[in-house]
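Key result, reporting period 2: structure in, sequence out.
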């Protein structure tokens, strides 16, 4: 078996049913008890807390052990095919998810004629559970089409009227306020909620040590605590105005998995123990998080067609202050601090950025203080490796408050670069300002020459 195949840490993805989920035993038990008692539960958590992992690797096997029939997990954001034009896309997506469990798949045309309630029927033969994952899709997809959303919630309400049908609905907590116009349609009005937080220290230690132990490798207590303490560092401002790193109460599950998977891949295959030296020499957290940041930024750039340079500059400009602290930026109508909201949401999905809703407004910030150092170091190295002289000068000009003294002196060089296609916004602004300054200088010189010529002519006359 290859070293990669033996890695017991899942990395940045969610756990799946059948995989061991460590560090969430109390949440598993509490969510199961609440769901059984209340029938409909709204599970909410910050991005990256592990909602999907808790559902797939925790709740589903626990429900089955209790004798419930668990339907295939439901997503409501699937794009309907052209042949299903005119259907309610959210109900159709839910039906399509449930149909994944059919032994004899039905034609798409037949499924398109069904609502969620008609697909499920008025009452199941035995107690069953519906699990809705990433339910925020009903709010973020076609946000102004409220009629379709109201129709879907009415459909969902009809499906949940049977007392033999349970449901858990998982949503990112920054979208909870968006449910207000629709939740009154549901039988319980989503009054029962369950909050999943990030990992506490002891839970994080379990998530570090137990997977390695199950794979036959002992992760030493001191090494595990060193890793967890490193991952929970937060940046605070001191009384003197500087910054300091102090241990916080939580660890981001995605970052823990990224760091542990990276450590495991880099340790010698024959090692049957992980100690403090391994954590320090092989599994440097900064390096693991830097590699993760590099990979995710490159992936988002490739998927969206946006230059990687623009994404990296957005992190530096919008999310990290000059003092090296996390900053929060308010979501705009179509853009947030110059970056399209669709791209920002793609970054949220990578768990590099966290969204938080307050008073009906959405704010974005770096997912964790622990990412500040790796992001800044990665961006600096990437700039050194990839930027040309013009790009570096533009970046310096911008960082220094855009003084005229840093603009380019040669108008011919400026115009040649302005003619190049695909230029980033900062470089274009830098070149245009350089051109305007040199044109003003040339015009001033021309006028000065005319005045001198007229003065000389007048003296001659």
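The corresponding designed sequence is given below.
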């Amino acid at each position: 078996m290859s070293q990669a195949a033996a890695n017991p840490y899942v990395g940045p993805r969610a756990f799946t049913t059948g995989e061991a989920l460590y560090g969430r035993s109390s949440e598993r038990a509490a969510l199961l008890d609440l769901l059984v008692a209340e029938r409909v539960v709204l599970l909410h958590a910050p991005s990256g807390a592990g909602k999907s992992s808790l559902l797939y690797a925790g709740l589903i096997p626990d429900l089955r052990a209790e004798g419930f029939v668990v339907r295939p997990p439901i997503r409501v954001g699937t794009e309907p095919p052209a042949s299903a034009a005119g259907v309610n896309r959210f109900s159709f997506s839910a039906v399509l998810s449930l149909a994944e469990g059919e032994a004899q798949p039905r034609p798409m045309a037949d499924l398109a004629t069904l609502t969620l309630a008609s697909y499920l029927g008025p009452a199941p033969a035995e107690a069953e559970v519906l699990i809705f994952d990433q339910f925020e899709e009903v709010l973020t997809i076609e946000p102004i089409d409220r009629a379709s959303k109201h129709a879907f919630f009415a459909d969902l309400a009809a499906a949940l009227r049977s007392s033999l049908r349970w449901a858990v609905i998982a949503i990112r907590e920054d979208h909870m306020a968006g449910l207000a116009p629709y939740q009154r349609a549901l039988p319980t009005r989503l009054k029962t909620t369950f909050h999943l937080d990030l990992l506490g220290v002891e839970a994080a230690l379990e998530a570090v040590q137990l997977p390695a132990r199950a794979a036959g490798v002992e992760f030493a207590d001191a090494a595990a605590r060193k890793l967890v303490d490193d991952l929970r560092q937060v940046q605070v401002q001191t009384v003197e105005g500087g910054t300091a790193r102090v241990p916080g109460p939580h660890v981001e599950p995605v970052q823990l998995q990224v760091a542990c998977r990276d450590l495991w891949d880099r340790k010698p295959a024959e090692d049957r123990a992980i100690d403090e030296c391994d954590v320090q020499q092989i599994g440097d957290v900064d390096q693991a998080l830097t590699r993760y940041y590099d990979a995710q930024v490159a992936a988002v750039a490739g998927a969206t067609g946006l230059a990687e340079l623009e994404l990296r500059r957005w992190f530096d400009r919008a999310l990290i202050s000059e003092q090296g602290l996390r900053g929060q930026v308010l979501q705009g109508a179509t853009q947030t601090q110059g970056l399209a909201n669709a791209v920002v949401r793609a970054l949220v999905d990578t768990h590099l950025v966290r969204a938080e809703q307050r008073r009906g407004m959405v704010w974005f910030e770096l997912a964790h203080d622990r990412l500040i150092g790796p992001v800044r170091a990665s961006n600096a190295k990437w700039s050194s490796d990839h930027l040309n002289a013009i790009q570096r000068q533009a970046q310096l000009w911008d960082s220094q408050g855009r003084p005229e003294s840093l603009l380019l002196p040669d108008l011919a060089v400026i115009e040649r670069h302005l003619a190049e296609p695909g230029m980033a916004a900062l470089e274009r602004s830098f070149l245009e300002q350089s051109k305007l300054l040199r044109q003003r200088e040339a015009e001033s010189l021309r006028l000065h020459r005319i005045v001198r010529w007229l003065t000389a002519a007048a003296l001659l006359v």
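The longest helix spans residues 425-460. The chain has a mean pLDDT of 90. This case is discussed further under Risks and Mitigation.
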